[in-house]
Specification:
Helices cover 20% and strands 19% of the residues. With 191 residues, the chain is of the alpha+beta class. The termini are far apart.
Length: 191
Amino acid sequence: MKISTSISHIAIVFFCIFGVITMPPKASKAAAADPENQLVIELKDSCKVVIDLLPEIAPNHVKRIKELTRQKFYDGSLFHRVIEGFMAQTGDPTGTGSGGSGQKIKAEFSNEPHRRGAVSMARTGDINGADSQWFIVLADSTYLDGQYTVWGKVSSGMECVDKIKKGNKFNNGSVTDPDKIVKMQVAADVK
C-alpha cells in the first residue's frame, strides 16, 4: 500500500511541477491520409473537394475510379443530376445520365452508411450495373444503404459541393447549364 501511495504522490508532484503530461499528438486526418487513396476535385471558382477513398470496403470500385481519374475521364464531367437535400451525380461522358465508360463493376455493398458526404456509385436497375457515374450525398440518405456501393467520403470541401447548381426537382434533378468537374486527380499525382 505504501509503495502505491508513494507512486501516486510522486505522480501528483510531477504533474503539479510540469503541468499536463504530454502525449504524442494524434496524427491529423489530413496528415494520416494516403495520397494514393484520395481524390482532389477542382470545381468552379477554384473550389476544391477532397475525397478519401475506401479501398478496404470497395476495392474494385476504388481501383476503377482511380483508373478513370488517371485517364482524365472525369475532367469536364457535368453534374447532370443534382437534387436539393439528396445528392449530386456526375461521371457520364455524355452529360445525359445514360452514358458510361463501357465497363461494369460488380456491386460491393457494405455497412458504410449513405450519410452526408458519402460518395457512392450510381447504377442501372441491375445491382451490378455500376459503370462510371457516381454521386455525393448532400443529406443523410440511409435508405440507400445496401443498395449502392459507397467507395469514398468527402473529407474537405463539402461547402463546394453544396454550391453545385441544383436541378429541377420535378424533372428528376436534371440540371440546365450544369456545373462540372474542372479537374479530378488522385492526390498522389497532384503537382
